[in-house]
Design goal:
66% of the residues lie in helices and 2% in strands. It contains six helices and two strands, in the order αααβααβα. It has a two-stranded parallel ribbon.
Length: 204
Amino acid sequence: MLNWNSKEMVRVFERAIDDYHITDSVDFIPQNPFRGQETKSVLYDKCMIDTIQWHLEDIIRDPAIKDDYGMEIKRRIDRSNQVRTETVEKLDDALLKEITPKSFLPEARLNTESPGWAIDRLSILCLKIYHMNVEANRADADNQHKTHCLNKLHILKEQQKDLCLAIDQLIDDIKKGKRIARVYHQMKMYNDESLNPVLYAQKK
């Protein structure tokens, strides 16, 4: 079981990103190295979803992409977003079940963002850092491009440092009853055949 430490989360995310880039293919079939370690396993899956989707988003922006292939990629992104949301909620369910105290302090305030969605942003931030580092060291790029990307990389690393601190503080405050966080499931409707009018109209 993970000690819900942001630095450990970053290590798991970086492992997922590195594993993907061994093949650098959106058709990569990941083998989660943390099976049996429930929390780390979910964190790894979460970042792998983000990593594959990152590259699908690159592909779909190709101005020369064929319509059929573009629609295939768009549908993959759509499915990925659904799984991503479900994975964050699974992470939140597990985390809050473990750290939520039996009672909160009278002055405890309700947090607008759950820990899981803050961790989601940390996963994306790790991806941004990885790819900005690639751009800052790209062999065929000019010095102006590299300098520009190095400046951005510095800012991203500062953001990561701040976000890690904020996540650790949030988790600690919840444990101590100082802040309240709840899992509000997204209730996405567009993939549900009973809720999307375009889909349920086709069944009539």
